Batch of 3 targets.
Target 1
Amino acid sequence: MSASPNPQAAHGPSVPHKQGVSGRIAKAFIQSPLTPLLLIAFFLIGLLGMMVTPREEDPQISVPMVDVLVAYPGATASEVSNLISEPLERLMSEISGVKHVYSMSREGLSMVTVRFEVGEQMEPSLVKLYDKLQSHMDLIPKGVMPPLVKPKSIDDVPVVTITLSSDRLDLAQLRKIGLDVQQRFKSLPETGQSFVVGGSLEQVRVEVEPSRLSANGLTMSQIAGAISAAGQRIPAGDVVQGDRWFNIYTGAFLKNAGEVGNLVVSAANGKPIFLRDVARITQGESEVKTIVDNTLRTADGVFVETPAVTVAVAKKRGSNGIDVAKSVLDELKAMKGTLIPGDVSVIVSRDYGETAQDKVSELIFKLFIVSALVTVLAFVTMGTRPAIIVLITIPAVLLMSLAVAYVLKFTINRVSMFALVFAIGILVDDAIVVVENIYRRWLEAERTDDDLTADAVDEVGNPTILATLTVVAALLPMGFVSDMMGPYMLPIPVLSSAAMVFSLIAAFVFVPWLAARVKPKMAQLKAAADREHRQSVVIGRVYDRLISPIMNSRPLGYITLFAIIGAMLFAVALFPLGRVAFKMLPFDNKSEMQVVIDMPAGTDLFATANLARRLGAELKKIPEVVAYQTYVGTSSPFNFNGLVRHYFMRQEPWQADIAVQLQDKHKRKRSSHDIATLVRGVLTPIGKAAGARLTIAEAPPGPPVLAPVVAELYGPTPEIRREVARKLVGIFEKTPDMADVNTFMEAPHDRIEFVVDRLRAGMFGVTVEDINREIRMATGGFEVGSVQAPRNLEQAVIVLQTPLPTRVNLGNLGSLPVRSRSGSLVPLSELGHFAPHRVDQPIYHKDLRPVEYVTGDVVGHLGAPLYGMLSVDSELKKYRTPDGQIMRGKYFSRPADTNVSGFKWDGEWQVTYVTFRDMGLAFMAALVLIYILVVAEFKSFLLPLVVMAPIPLTLIGIVPGHWLLGADFTATSMIGFIAL
C-alpha cells in the first residue's frame, strides 16, 4: 500500500487499457443494487444450509456388507465348506461391485459375508445379491435350509442406547419394559433399526422326568403333540342365519401355564392323565442363556451392580443424528414414572447425538475463533475498514460452503468442519490482496472513484485467479483417495475447494462494493502507507543482512546449500529412525471403550461371567470410569467398529464384552487412549491367568478394520495353516509393544454325541429319526407352542424339556422312552450311548482362498501397526514352516502362490498404505497441475520450477515439528503438507 515516489504516476492520467474479467465483474457489481441482495442471499442460503444439513460425528461411508447365513443341521465344518460356502463364494464373487467375499464354515452353519466397493449403495447391491441367490436356488443340496440374508450398514449402528436396571424386578419383567420402551421409540420419526439386549423371554416351561414318562407309557413326542394340537384357533368357514352373515372360528389358544397343565395327554383305567400329572409346569423367566448387568458409580463414588437390559436405537439414512438422539431422550423423559416404573434405574449408556453435537460445536467455535483471529490480524496490519471487509466476507464464504455440503449430501461432521477451519487461512488471501491493491491505487491517484477501484481489482485479478486455481489444483486430487478413507476424507478437498471458489467470487463482487462504502480518508491511507513503509524498511534491512552475505560469498553460499540439504536429510531420517511414526490418524478422545473377552471355547456361561466380574472390579478402581455394562453370552449394542468386526455375532457362552463409559473429556485430564492403555495393562494379566484373550477396543478415529494388525495366513493344508498360526501367535506375544493378540481358531473342545446302535435300533423297530426327535425334545428346549397374553410384544413360547438337574448328567436320560413301530417303549440306553467328540475347527476363506487370521494391536511410543509388523518380520527369519518355507509378510498383496505357507499384512496397515499411496499420487498430480498453471501464466518452462523448488523443503519444518511435539505423521499431516 506504499505510495509511488513518482508524482506523475500519482497524479497523471492513467493509460487506457482493456479490462479483464475480474475488472469487468467488479465494475458491474460495485454500484449494483443486486450486490447487497446477493450478499444477504449468501448469508441466508448458508444459514439455511447449516440448519438443514444433518449433523453427525463422522462422515457417512457407504460400504454395503451383507451376511448370507445358511444352516445345514448335522453337517461337519468341511461338509458345510464344500457344499455351501464355496459354491456361495463363487456366486457372490460374480456380482458386479463386490470387493471381497469372506466365509466362515462351522458345524451346521455357513456365513458368507459380501463386502461391496466403497460408494456402492445398499439397495441396488441387495437387489443384485438377491437376484443371484434366487436364480440358483435349484442348486441347494438336500437337507440345507434356505439362505437368510442379513444386510448391514453404518446406518444400523445405534446412535442412542438406554440401559434399564433393577434389583426388584425379574428379568422377564425388565425385558417387557425394555420392549415397551423400544416400541415408543419406534413411533418417533427418523428412528431406524432398534433392538433390546438382555433380560429373559417369558416362557411356559414343561419339564418332564423320563421316569414319569415311562411310568405312564408316554414319550416326549406325545407330550409335544398334545400341546401343539391343543393350542390352535383357525377360521373354519362362514354361515348365514336369517339375514345375518357370520364367520365361524374353531379352537382356542392356550393362555397360561394353568391351561397347559390341564391338557389331557393320555388315559389310563378310564381316567384322564393330565399334563400336570407327568410334568412340572411353570411360567416366567427362561433358563439363563445370557447375563447383562449394569454397574453405575453413584454420587458418593460407590458402584452399584444390578441386572439390566439395554434398548438400542439407530437412525434412518440421511437423518440428523443429533435430532434423532434428542427426540429419543425427550421421549425417555416422558416415559419415566409411567411406562418406566420408579424402581427401574435409567442411564443413557450411549449418546452419539451428544458427542456429535460436542464435536461439531467445538469445531464451529474454532471456526469463529480462527475467523476472529484473521479479522484481528487484518485490523492490526491494515486497519479498521479492511478488517470490517474481512469480517463480512469470511462468514459469507463459509456459510455458502456449508450450503454446498447440503447440496452434495454431505453432513456437518468433524471432517467437513475441519475442511472449513483448514481453508480459512487460504481463502482470506483473495479478499486481502484485492482490498490492499484497491487502497494502494487510491493512494497513488489520490482519488477513490469506482473506475479506479475496478481497475485495481483487474490489476490483481489474474494473479488472484491463478492463486485460487493453484490451491484448488492442490486440494482436489485428494478427492480421489480410494477405499474406506476416500469418502471419509472427501469433504476436505470438496468443501475447501468450494470455499476457495466462493472466496474468489467474494473478492471480485463483495470486496469492491464494501470497499466503496467503508472508504478511509486519504489521510488515513497515507498514514497506513507510511507505517507500512517503515515496517518494510525494517524487514528489508534484516533480510538484507541475512541474505546478502550468502549471495555475495560463494563459500557461504555452498555452506548454506549444504545446510539446507542436511536439514532436509535430517528431517526425512526422523522417519526410519523411529522419531516420528507413520500412522493412519491420531488417536481420538472418546468417552467410551470396550473390553472384548474370549474365554477358551467350551467354557461355561457362569465361568465367563465370573471373569467379567473380576475384570469389572478392576475397572471400578479407575477414577474416570463412571459406568459399565457387562454382556455375557451376548453382545453389547455394536458401534461402527463392532459392525465391521461382526461383534453382533458373538453369542457363545464363552464370549463376553464390557461396554465402558468414561467421564466427559472436558472433566478428565487423561485421554481415552491413555485410559485404554492403563486398562490393558491392568486387565490383560487377569485374563491371561484365566486362559482368556482380551481385546481393548477403542473407538477408532477413522474407518474401522478387523484389527489394527492382521496377518492373513495361507498354506497348503488346514493343519499347516493352523500350526503356522499358532507359531505366529507366539511370535506376536513375544514382540515388544504388541498387545491384544488373538486368533480366529477355537480352543480344542468337545461336543457330546449320541451314537446310535443301528443294529439294536433296527431290531427294536426304532428309527434314527425317532431317537433324534426324543433327544432333541429332552435336551434342546424344544418349542411346542405358545401362550397368548395381552400386551406381549414378544411371543411367550411353551418349551418342552427335561429338568436341568437331569440334563446335567446325561446318564439320567438312559431311561428316556422311545416308541417303537410296534408301540412298545424302548429305553434310550438300549439304543446307543453318549460319547464326546472333538468339535471341528471353523474354516475361513477370503476371496475364495482358505485363510487363517492372527490379530493384534501395537502400543507404546511407536503405536502404529507398521512397526510391530516389521518386528514380527525380523523374528520370522528364524522360523521354517512345516512345509519348509521361510515366511516374510507381504505388505501390498497376498502371496502369489497360496499353496505354500505365506501371509499378507492387513488391518490398519492396508488402509494406511492405500491412503498414503493415493495421497502421494494426489500430491504428484497437484504438482503437475500447479506447474501447468504457472507455465500458462508466466509463459516459461523454467520459472515454475524455481517457484516450486521450496515445496519439498517444507518438510524441514513439518517433520521436526512433529518430533518436538511428540506427534505421529498421519493422513491429516499429509493434508497439511499438500496444502503448503
Note: The first strand starts at residue 65 and ends at 71.
Target 2
Amino acid sequence: MVNMPVTTISEMMNLTVLARMTTPVNEVEAGSLYFEGMEQREQDIHDECEGTCLWLLEHKNYCNWTKNSPALLLIKGSPGTGTELQKSPLGLWRSLLHQILNQSVDLQAKFQENFEKKFKTRGQNGTIWVWREDDLKEFFKTCVAEKYQVTIFIDALDECGKVVATDLVRYVQRLIGRTQSKLNVCFSCRHFPAVADDHKSTTIIVEDENGEDIQKNIQNDLEFAFREEQDKLQVLLAEISGKASGSFQWANIAASRAIQSFRLGSSMNDILDELWETPTELSELYSTILAQIPPKERHRSLRLMQWLSLAARPLSLRELRFAMAADWPGPSGQFPRLHRELEQSSKYEDDNQMARLVRNLSGGLAEVKIVKNQGEEQIAQRVVQLIHESVKEFLVQDGLQKLGWSESSIGQGDSQLSNVCMRYATLEDVCDKIRAGQFDELPFLEYAVTYWGFHAEQAGRIDDSQNNQPGRFVWPSEDTLQRWIEVYRLVNRDDQATLLHYCSRHGLLNAIKLLPDQGVAVDSQDKEGHTPLSLAALHGHREVVVLLLEMGAQADCKSKRGHTPLMYAVRSGYEEIVNILLAKDIDVDRHVDVADTKGRTALSYAAENGHVKIVRLLLERAVIVDNKDQKGRTPLSYAAENGHIAAMQLLFERDARADTKTKWGHTPLVYAAENGHPEVVHLLLTKDVNVNSQGWYGRTPLSWAAGNGHEDTVKPLLDTGEADVNSKDYDERTALSRAAENGCEKVVKLLLDANGDVDSRDEEGRTPLWYAAADGHREVIQLLLEAGANVNARDNRGWGPLWFAGENKHPEVVQLLLDAGAEANPEDEEVACCREKACGDDTAPTGNPF
C-alpha cells in the first residue's frame, strides 16, 4: 500500500517532504523524473513551531476527509496565512511520482517497464525524449490512483496560475469521481483565483483558525529579546497577534521590527506606537519598508528587486553578484568589456559582501538560503530569494515603481535583464574561457544564455499589451549578435537546436532578421524533431511564423512524435496561425488529415480542446470527420469527454457518427456520462445512440454517471425510459451498487425510484448496502433500508454489512444497522467485535476476508 507518512504539520503541508525516501528507485528511472530545484522548497522550510497547526488535525472537515476515500479537501487562506510549491504541472507530476515510487517496489517495477519501453523505442531520456505531463498523469491514474490508497497534499496551488490550477483541480475531481479511485487529495491555496469544488470536496479557511498559532510562532523570538521584560512581552504578543488578522507573514515582520527597535533603545511606548502605525495590509507594509531604503541606494535596490521578482528561476548568490556587476558602469561610465573586470569589481567584491548587500538593498524583504543540490556530492549553494511570495506579487504589481520607475515597469525590467544577459554572454573574453573549459569562472553564463530570450520575449509582450511605440526595446548590434551566436554554439554543442530555434521559440522577430543569411537552416530539427516553424506555431508567434514561411520553411514538417506546425497551432488555439498555415499549404486537404504517432489529427486536437473557430476552419477543408486514432477514438469522442458541445454540433453538421466505439467499447455517450456533461448527454440522446452500450469493464453510461455522482447526467439517461437500471458490468455490479459505494445520495434515490434492485448481488455476493456500510455512507444506508434492503445479506465469504461497518470504524452506521435488525454471526462473535470497534477500541479482535 502506498500511504504517504504524515508525522508533522511541516511534512503534511509540503509536497516535497511528504514521502521520506526509504527504498531508492533505480538511478536511471529516478533521474528521468528528477529536475533541478525539485527539493529546494523542502530545504527552504523552517523548523516547525511546536504546538502550531494542531487545530487542523482536529478540524471536523479534515477528520471527515481522512475517513472518506476518494475525497478532496481545499485549505484556503490569504497570502502569508500559512498556505504555499511546485508551480509547473509537469514539475508537480515529476516530483509526486519521484516520491511515490520510493514507497512501493511494485510501482517501481511498473514504472521501470514503462521507462524501458520508451528507451527501446525512442532512445536516451533527456536527449531524445523527456517525460510529458500526459505520460505521467496516465501512469498515475492507471497504476497508482486506481490501485492504491494514496493521500496527497499539494501546497500553493494558486501559484500555478488560474488556468493551470483550475485544470489540475478538475483532473483530480475526475479521478476522485471514478469508482476505482482510492485517492485523497488536499490542496492548499489562496482565496483567489477561485478554485471550483464539487459535492465531494470540503473547505477549511485558515485565517479563521490560526490565531493561537500566530502567537506561538512569534513567541520564541520575542521571548529571547524580551527575556528580562516579561510584562512587555505579554503586551507585545497580544498586540501583534491581535492585529495580524490571520497573517503569519505580517506578524513575523512586525515582531522583527519590534525586536530591532527594542535593541536600538526604543521605549515600550515608542515600540507600540510604531506597531500601531504599521499598515495591516502587506502591500502597505512592504511600501513602508522600501521607502526606508536610502535614496542613494535606490538604483541598486531597483536592480536587485528586478532580478528577484522577474528572474526565470532563483539565482545563486554568486550568479546574482556577477549579474549586478555586469550592469554597473565603471568610473568612466562604460560597462565592463572583460569578465575579469567583473571579478575585480569594487562594488561587488565577494559573496559575503553580496549577502550583506542583499539584505540592505531589499530592506529585509530578501534573504540568502543554503540549498543542497541532488547527487552524491550534495553540493550546497547560497540562493537569493524574496522572503515570501506576496513580496513578489507586490513588486510586480506596483512595488518596483515605488523605487522610481515609470508605468511600464515590468516591460522595462525584462528589457533591462535581457540586456544584462546579452552583455554578460558577449564579454570579449568569454569565448576564450569556454574553449579553455573554465566554466566555473563564468557563474552567470548558463542563465544568460538560457534566459536572454525569455526576458526579451516578456519585454516584447508587455510592449504589445501596452501599445508602446516600437523601438523602445533595443536589440543587439550585428557584431554583438555574432559574438552571441559563437557563445551559444560553444555552450550548446550537444544540442541540435540552432539560434533560429531559440529565437523562434521566444518570438524574437528582429533577432531573426539580424541572423546572417548564410548557414541558416530554416527546417533544421532539434533533438525532439521540432523545426523553428513548429516552435513559433506552438508558442503563438504569428509574425515569426510569417517570416519563417517567407524564408522557405516547410509547413508540413513533422516532429519525432509526428506533430506538424499546424497541430501545434491547433492544440494551443492560435486561430490566426492556423489560417496562415492552411493558406500556405499547397496540398491542404492532405495536410489537415496528417496523423501523429498516436494516430491523432489536427481536428482531433481542436475538438478535444474546444477550439470552435478552428474546428470550423478545419471542417471547411475535406477532413475525415470520423478519423480514428490508435485507441479507436474520434474527434467527437474527445469533444464529448470534455463537454465541448459547440464543437460537437459542428461535427454533427458534417455527419459525424454519434455511436462510434473505442477499442475498449467506449462511445461518446459513455465519455460524456462518465465526466458529467448533461448538455452533451442530451445532445447525444437526440442522435439515436444506444443508451445501454457497454464500455470499459462492461459498464454502461448510466453506470459511469451514477458511480461518479453526476445526478444531472443520470436523470436524462433514466428519462429516456430505455436505460437498463439493473444492467450489470463485468463484476456483476449495477449502477446502484456503484452509487452506493461512493455515497452519491441523490443518485441512489433516483435509481431506487427507477426500480433499481436494492438487493442486487455482484460476483462477490455483495449488495449496495454492503458497499455503503463498508464506506460509512449513513444517508445512503438509510435510503436503502427504507427501500427494503436486506440488512443481513452476506457476501460469498459470510461477511455482512454490520461486520464491515465495524471493521472500518463507522460507529453511527453500526448503530443504524443494529437498530434496523442486523444480526451478528455468533460463531465469529461479530456483535462484540462491532460494538467494541464502534466505541473506538483498537484492541478489539479483527479479521480480514481478503
Note: The two ends are 14 Å apart (CA to CA).
Target 3
Amino acid sequence: MPAHLTRLVIRRILSNEPIVYRDCLYRRANACLQPRAQRIRRNGFAQTRSFFGMAREPERKVKGIDLAPGLDTLIELNRAQTGQSRPPDLEMLCKALDKFFRKKYFSSETISDVEAGHALNTLRYLNENRPKEEDVSDAPRTFLKPRCFLNALEVLNKKDSPRSDAHLALTEEVFKFLDAMRPNGCEPDSYNERMIRSLAETLEIMSHYEPVRARDMLVEKYKTNRWTSQSQKPLARPWASVLQGLYQKGNHAEAQKTLEMMQELEIPTNIMMQVKETLLGVHAALGDLENTKRIYNDLSQGPPQIVEIDSGSYKAVLQCCLQHGDSKWAQSIVRSMLETLEVYYLEPADDRLDEVKKLWDVLFFWAAASGKGVDEVDRMMNVMVRRTFADGRSAQPDVETINELVSWCMSRNQLYFAERYISLGAKWGIHPNALTYYLQVKYRLSGGDIDGARAAYRQLQAVECSKEKEDIRAANELIQAMCASQKYTFSSIMALADDLTERKGRFEPETVSALSVLHLRRNELHDVIDLLQTHAFHFSEAERRKIADSLVAMVLDRAHTSTARAWDTYIITQSIFAELPRSARTQIMREFFDRGRADMACHIFTHMRELDHPDTRATADTYVVALTGIAEFAAARVAATDNVDVDADAADAEAEYDDDESRAHECRSLLDAVHNAMKLDLDLEPSTRLRNALMLAYTAAGQPARAWSFWEDIVNSREGPSFNSIPIAFRACERMPVDGERHARALWARLRKVDVEITKPILAAYVGALAGNQNTDAAKEVLLKCERDFGLRPDAFILGTLFNAAYGVSRQGDLERWIQAKFPTQWVELKRLGARKMDDGPRLFNIDRRLTP
C-alpha cells in the first residue's frame, strides 16, 4: 500500500471515523489537498488495550489426544489403507515402530489391544512391502534392528500385560521377524540363550490361547535348531510354558502327549526335572492335589544336585494343602523343609543365607495359616535368629517377612491381625517399605477406613517405590474410594490426582471414570475433555468401554442429571468414544425422547447415521426407535420436568412447549428429517415394523391420512401386516378429520371376513376409531355385543379408550352416564385411575394407550 494511503487509513482509525470506498482509491488519495467541510466527530467506541495485553486471560484450549510416541504414524498408515490414500514411507514407519516399542519398554507400560492392532498392521505392511534383494542397496534402511523386537517381546510378556487376539498375532509376527534376523551373532539353524528366551516368551503368550499350536511350534523349532545355553533353566522354560498352558486349559490328554513327545525327543533328565519343578507350582496353584503329590515325590527322590525345590514351590504346595484340608501331608512337607534347613546351615552362610531366610518365611506363613497367633510367630522368629551358621551369622526377619504375613491376613479378611503383624515388624525394628504401606491402604479401604488409608498413603509418599509402583496403585484405589464416598472435598481429591500426575503414574480406567463424573457434576467440561484426551487413548477397548459406560450411566440418571448436563456428557462421550455401541447410543436417544427433547434425540440419530462402522451405524431398529420417540413426543402428555435443581440456563433448555402449534410444527420437521433420511439409506429395507412406526409418527404429528397410506403399503407388501399393525391403523382412523369411520369399518369388515382373532387391543382401537369420528352409538353397540361375539367383556381399558376418544364435553357426559348404567364396576375402576382435565374442557382418563410397532 502506498505511503499516503497508509497515512489516510491510520488517520481515519485514530479519528474513529469510517473508511468509505466510493471510488478509485488513487483519486481519493488526493482528497487531502482539496478543501472539505468540517465533519462533526462523534465520540464512539475508543480503542483500549491492557498493559502489554497481560491483564487479558487467554482463552482455554482443549488438549489434544495424548498418544504413545510413534503411534500417530501407525494410525496414519491404518487410515491411509482404509481411505486408499498415500501411506507413510517405510523408513518413517520403521522409526515410529522402534520409538513405540522403546517407549513401552523403558516406561514399563503395557500395550493395549488397540495399540497392538496398529503395531501388527504396521509389521504386516512392512513385511509385504519389503524391498527385493536387488533393491536393498538403493532402498532406505527400512528394516528394524533385533533390539526393537526383543523390547516388544519383553513388553508383551509382562505379568500385567493384557491378553487378546491382537496381542497373540502381534507376538507371532514379532517372533517371525526376530527368527529371521537371529540377533546377537546367532548362527543359522542354532538358537542361543537369547533366542531360546524369546521363543519361551512367545510360547507363554501363545499357550494362554492355543497351547496345542504352541506345542507344535516348539517341537518344530527343537527339531530344526540346535539349542545352546550355559544353564538348564532357559532350556526348560519353553517346555514348562507349553505344559503350563495345557494344564491351565484342563487339557490333560494333550499334556500327557507332550510329555511323551519330550521322551521321544530324548530331552535330558536335568531339563525334565526343571520342567517338573515348574509344574509343581502349576498344579499346586490349580488346586490339583493328586498331581502335586506325584510331582513332589518325583522331585524328592531325584538327585539334589540337579534340582532343588525352592521356597515359592513349597509355599504353593502348602496353600494347596490348606485348600484341601490335608494337614497330615502338609506336616510332612514342613518336616522336609526343616531337614533342608539343617543341611543348609552346614554350608557357608554366603551360599545359603538367602535360601534359608526364604524357607523361614514360608514356615512363618504356614504357622499363621494353620492358626498360630502373632505371639507364636514372634517366638519362631527368635528361634530363627538364634539358629546360626558356622561363622555365627543368622537369618533375620525383614520387611518381606512382614509383608507376606500381612498379605495372608488380607486374603482371609483378618484386618486386625494385619495391623498386629505390622506392629510386630516395628517391634523387630523393621521399617515398612512401599509395599507395606500399599497393603495398609488396601486393607483399610476394604474395611471402609478411608481416613486411615489416606494416612497410610501420606507415609507411602515419603518412601521409594519399587518397579511394582505401589504408590500408583494406592493413589488410584484411594481416588476411587474418595469419589465413591461423596464425603470428601473436591480439593482433597484433586490433590491426590495431581500427585498421581506428577509421579507420571497410570490412571486406571475406574479412576478416570470417577474423576470424569466428578468434573461433570461441577460443570467443568474442559477438565473432563482434557482428562479423557490424556488417558482414554492409552486403554484397551474393554477399559474404554468401562469409562464410556460410566458416562452413559450419568446421562441416563434423570434423577440427578439435568438435561443440559446430560447433553454435554453425550457430546463428550460420542466425540471421544467413537466405538460407543449402537445399543448405548439408542438408549441415550430414548432417554432424550423421555426427557421431552426430541430435537436432541434426533441429533443423536443423525450422528448414528453419519457413522461408518457396522456396530455403530443406524439400523432399521434405530429408525423405529426414532419414529416411536417422535410419536410419543407429539402426543399430548402431562408436563414432565427433571426432578433436580438446575441453573437458569438448564431450566430454559428444559422448558415445556406451551404452544401446541409449535410442538406440532417441530414434530413435523423432525419426522420429515427422519423419513427423508430413511429414503436415502441404501442399506435399509422397509419392513412392516418400520412402516408401523411411520404410521404411529405421522398419526401423532397430525397427518393421519398420510399414515393410512403406509397401512396400504403394508397390505400390499410381501410381509403383510402384523397384529401390532391393526391397532395402529385404527388409531390413524380415529384421528382422521374425514373418511376415518369409513376406513375403520372397511378394515373391521375385512378382519371379520378373514376370521382374524379379535383381541382386546384390536377391539379397543376399533371402538376408539368409531368414537373419534363422533359415532359413539356404533361404538356402544359393538361393546354390548363383544362378549357374545368375541368372548371379551369390556374392562376399564376398553371403556377408557371409548371415553378418551369421544373428545367433547357433551359426548363425554353422555358416555359417562351410559357407562355408569351398563358397567358400574368398570366405572369405579376408571375413577380410581384418575383423570386430567384439558384446557378446552374434556377429560382424559389416565390409561396407557401407547402402541408399539
Note: The domain at 708-853 is CATH 1.25.40 (Serine Threonine Protein Phosphatase 5, Tetratricopeptide repeat).
